[in-house]
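Quick one, tokens below:
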């Protein structure tokens, strides 16, 4: 395998992020937290160029995919994660981290994995855009309900939304309008993976001491992440089969209920709260990567 192929390999990039975070965490300094927002913004732009908004003008055809995706991504996943966190977590900052994870949008891997697994790609694309628009209402509401009315300064939240959601949406559509997206599309996977590298590295580096000193907390967060992903995978498959959803739609919805944007949750936690609050998003991302690897191997075997 050539050096270029290695540098484009998602698994190598993520393992390197964890390794460097553990190795140089103490010397990295708190200034590195400011790298997370620009990295997330780049990831969002590279991801959103897949979705030209002109394809979403037929409103009637959008209602069901949008509502189902929002229900599964935010309300069903959120209920499971917050119930587990309420039962098992006693630290307020970690609780905040799980609230942010519960109201994080779906991961950027949903549309490509929908295609890999034989799901309904159009359904997933509509759901993806809908959930990213819905988060601008769901995020502050969830914060007020589960954290408190003064959980964050409104102006700071608006600035963050502009930086990581509204801004990337506008930039992505400008790139599409002028047909510049083709230059990014060629390297989209690499751009997204190295953007996530920065976020994962920052979170691991800033929380290095917690990982080494508090293995019990680490184990509890890992357990919640594992149950949230595998438990919801089993539960959603069972419920959607009972409700007689088409196989292709079911596969799309299962992905919306299990593939959450952990780096988004971690970045928002770093920007709005504390390093400790970013840990649930980071740990969840580890289990999500393993889950996606298993799904990709399963898909290849079925082929």
């Amino acid at each position: 395998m050539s050096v270029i192929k290695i540098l484009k390999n998602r698994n190598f990039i993520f393992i390197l992020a964890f390794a460097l975070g553990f190795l140089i965490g103490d010397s990295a300094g708190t200034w590195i937290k400011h790298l997370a927002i620009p990295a997330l913004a780049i990831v969002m732009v590279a991801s959103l160029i897949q979705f030209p908004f002109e394809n979403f003008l037929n409103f009637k055809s959008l209602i069901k995919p949008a509502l189902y995706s929002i229900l599964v991504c935010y309300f069903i996943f959120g209920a499971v994660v917050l119930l587990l966190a309420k039962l098992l977590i006693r630290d307020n900052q970690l609780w905040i981290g799980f609230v942010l994870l519960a109201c994080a949008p779906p991961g950027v891997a949903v549309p490509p994995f929908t295609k890999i697994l034989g799901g309904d790609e159009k359904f997933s694309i509509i759901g993806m855009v809908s959930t990213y628009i819905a988060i601008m209402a769901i995020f502050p509401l969830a914060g007020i309900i589960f954290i408190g009315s003064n959980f964050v300064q409104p102006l700071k939240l608006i600035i963050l939304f502009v930086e990581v959601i509204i801004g990337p949406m506008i930039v992505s559509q400008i790139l599409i309008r002028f047909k510049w997206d083709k230059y990014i599309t060629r390297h989209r996977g690499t751009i997204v993976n190295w953007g996530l590298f920065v976020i994962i590295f920052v979170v691991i580096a800033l929380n290095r001491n917690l990982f080494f000193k508090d293995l019990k907390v680490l184990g509890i967060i890992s357990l919640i992440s594992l149950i949230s992903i595998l438990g919801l995978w089993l539960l959603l498959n069972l419920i959607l089969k009972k409700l007689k959803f088409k196989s292709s739609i079911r596969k799309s919805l299962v992905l919306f209920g299990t593939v959450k944007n952990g780096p988004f949750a971690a970045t928002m936690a770093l920007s709005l709260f504390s390093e400790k609050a970013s840990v649930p998003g980071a740990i969840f991302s580890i289990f999500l990567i393993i889950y996606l690897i298993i799904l990709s191997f399963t898909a290849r075997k079925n082929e």
